Structures are given as structure tokens and as C-alpha cells.
Amino acid sequence: MRTDQWQTGILRASMASILQAGTLEGFSPHWIGNDHGLRFLADPFGLWHEQNLYVFAEAYDYRTKCGKIDMLQFDASFRFVRRARVLAEPWHLSYPVVFQHDGAFWMLPEAHRSGTLSLYRAAHFPDRWEKIDHFSFPVAAIDASPIFFKGLWWMFFSPPGSAREKKSMLCAAFSEHLTGPWRLHPANPIRENLASGRPGGTPLIDGDDILLPTQDCTKTYGGAISIVRISGLSPTSCTTSVTTRLVAPPAFRPWTDGLHTLSAAGDVTLIDAKRISHSPLRHLHDVKRWLQKTATRTNP
User: Fold this and answer.
1) Residues 6+ apart with CB under 8 A from 77
2) How far apart, in whole angstroms, are the C-alpha atoms of residue 34 and residue 89?
3) Residue 217 Cα distances to 23, 148, 164, 197, 258, angstroms
4) Strand 94-101 vs strand 104-110: parallel, antiparallel, or unpaired?
5) N or C: which end of the chain has fewer CB within 10 A?
6) Which stretches of the chain are DSSP H helices?
7) pTM score > 0.85 for this model?
8) CB contact set of 284 (below 8 Å; sequence gap of 6+)
9) What percent of the chain has pLDDT over 90?
10) pLDDT at 288 over 90
């Protein structure tokens, strides 16, 4: 029996400088938000606003198996200010990409179990978010990662499908406007590889190319980060290649069993790293939940 436990951290270095170094050796994380063995924070994304760093992350609880979105606020010296639940739905939420555009704050969380991809705008940043009704995306994209590049909005994502397809297929879509209409790239999937298919962080522009963090799931889910270079990107074509593979270094112990998010927040970078627990506690809760559901079906 095994349970993945994730820990979120802040690296005091830009994502560009980390990619230039090609390693996480020498970068010391400021770990945040680990609760206990059955709860954790993962998939961190963030931005700076009025000299405060706002980190948005999936807050997951193995007892309910349903992720919510929490916000953690830090001041300019990285002192913790507060934590708040900012988004909850009846379905699982994760991967809360946050960004600014047209004078507003936007969030694009992963929610494929709802059957769609939804875009939210801050009605009152950072605590209150409203779903944009006129946003429409062709598929229930997994870990959708947007970027504005050469006059178009681009979305990189994995499609819903089999367990392997969710971890190995990289697809793209494009639009003239953030809210759409969105069109799927004719070459989809633009990449299919278990070591470098599923998005895992913030896309960065590098000259005429895009550098996209993806997850290496060959040995374990979220085992490492593979940086995919997307070249010659247009509405009709593109090529992809892997430039760098980042793993959790020994200095991250005990969080060295995986790494599956690398996201940019100005002059800092947000990560999450994993340790694998062999405690039976989570599985005991799984059995308890199954027994409760069985009893409900038997005695309606």
C-alpha cells in the first residue's frame, strides 16, 4: 500500500534562471502548507500583487478525495499572512493557473470531472471568484496551461481519456481571445510520451519558442519535470523536443520521490515535491468510505 503525499515550496529564483541552470541543485525551498498525512497542498501557482505573494494551490484531503482551491498570502519578506479557501465546487479542483489580463485576475483550474473546462474571474481578489459563462472550450482539458504568444492565446493540455492518455498526451488549442472561440490544433496530440506529455507548470517564451514544463510519469505519477521546447508553433504546425529533466535533489528530503509542478511567479518559482508513504491510514479511510456507500445503497 502506498500513498502520495505532496509538499509545496517557494524557490527564491526566477523560473528562467532555474531552467538556465538545468538543475534544482543549490536551490533551497521554503516549504509551505503541508498539513498532515491525509491532507496536502499541491499544484501551486501564484502572482505578486501590491508587494504580496499570493499562492493558489490544490488543497486535497484523502478522506473526501475531492480537491478544493486554497490561497496562501505572504508579504515581501515571505512571512505568512493568511490562508483561505477561495474556490470549491461539487467536483474535484486542482492545478489553479492564475494570471492577470486586461486589468483583471483570472483563474483556470483543472476540473475535468465536471465535464468541462471553466474560466473564473476575480470579483474581489484574491478571495472571491466568478465563473465566466461565455467561456467555452472544446474538451474537458486536464492541466490546461495558457500563454499569449505571437498574437494568439494558446492552451496546452492533456485530454480526458484512459489513465495513460491523461499522463502522456500533450494537445494544443488557440484563440484570438482568452474567452474564445477556441480551436483545437490539427496536429493533436502534438506530443505523446509518458515522460513528457502532461503539462506541469507555467509556459515560458524563449525567443521564437515556448518552454513548457511537463510531467515525467514513467515510473510514478509526477516523478519529475521534463521541459518541452515547442518550436515553429502556428495554427497548422509545430515540433516538440525535450531540453531538460528536473528531479527533486537530495536536499529536498524527505520530499524526493517526485516533482510535478514548476510555475513562475515573478522573481520566485513555485514547486511541489512528493514523498511516498506506506502507512495504511489512507486505505483504512477508503474502506470506511466504501462501507458507508454500501450501507446507503442497501438501506436507502
Assistant:
1) none
2) 22
3) 19, 27, 9, 9, 9
4) antiparallel
5) C
6) 15-21, 163-168, 281-298
7) yes
8) none
9) 88
10) no
